[in-house]
Amino acid sequence: MTTLNDIAKRAGVAKSTVSRYLNNGSVSDKTREKIQAIIEETGYVPNQFAQSLKAQHSNIIGVVLPRFDSPSTNQVLKGIDDVAHEKSYQLMLTNSNLSIEREKENISLLKRQKVGGIILIASKMDEDLKKQVTQLSIPTLILGQKIEGVPSLVHQDYEAGRLIAEHALELGHTKILYVGVTEEDNAVGVLRRNGFMDTVKEAGFEAAFHETSFSRKEAYQQALDYLPTTEATYIAAATDHIAIGILNAANELNLSVPDDFSLSGFGGYSESDYTFPSITTIDYPFYDLGIKALNRIEQMMQEDPVSLLETMPNQLNVKQSTKKIK
């Protein structure tokens, strides 16, 4: 396998000269022609990753993922990757595993690696993280959450909560339980829940609340405890994964959805189509968000003006798991 050092020896120049040529630096025409001829003769393929780290403008985009085992994250990443491949950008992926501290570490890592831009798919946030992001000199785009002064792409989470609540009320349900997550996640834990709760309250009713995690297993285990005693005829879960966990618990307890209670989620994950019954949900354009994110960070890397905030629409998708109250 031909190396950069081999090219330099055959051309009779320093390795740094070959590196400058590969990075479009200053090299004489004669030397440029000699190096190019040797590259074509040997079939040498430059290490673009290493080149990008040394180049003034990196074509590497760092992506901070909240976790790997998330259908929504996977769809966003697919959109990012499809456009990155089309436009010859390389991705450097880091996983925060729903930890704010790891999120901060990953941002620092990408900064040290001199990536051309950072896409942060944010979950939990605190003031230190917001400060770290606002002080970055690297173009940075936030997905799913908002930081003042930093370009962000977000979902209509409050509106999504309202849509699901309106659906439950239209079906005649008044005994309602919302199964949500921690307020550390502003989009899912606060906005989505508030949209739901506010709508139920405006209709003259009160929804009960139970906090769980994003884990389908934990949602399932907790549901085994509260389903036998709940009076709720409608349970709204903060994500499709949580809804699937609740559905699994209901099956184990010989409870029927939607006969014993209606059930809905958020996200539009493909898994919710293949449960029985299929789960009513809010479809989120995760893949489209990924496409828009890559195009947006490219604009930022090219120093083109971009809007600080753009909101992605969503829509109610009624399936088999919800029905009118008897």
Provide keyphrases for this structure.
3 domains; DNA-binding; Rossmann fold; 6-stranded parallel β-sheet; transcription; DNA-binding transcription factor activity; 326 residues; single chain; 434 Repressor (Amino-terminal Domain); 12 strands; transcription regulation
Which assembly state applies to the chains in this document? single chain
Percent strand equals 15-25%
Q: Write down the domain tally.
A: 3
Order of helices and strands: HHHHEHEHEHEEHEHEHEHEEHEE
Largest sheet: 6 strands, parallel
Spatial separation of the terminal alpha carbons: 73 Å
**Radius of gyration over all CA atoms, rounded:** 25 Å
Mean pLDDT: 92
Q: Report strand order across the widest sheet.
A: 2-1-3-4-5-11
Kindly report the name of the CATH homologous superfamily of the largest domain: Response regulator
Number of strands: 12
Large-scale geometry:
elongated
Number of helices: 12
Helix content: 40-55%
The assigned structural class equals alpha/beta
The first-level CATH class name of the largest domain: Alpha Beta
Second rung of CATH, namely the architecture of the largest domain: 3-Layer(aba) Sandwich
Which segments are poorly predicted (pLDDT under 50) over 5 or more consecutive residues? none
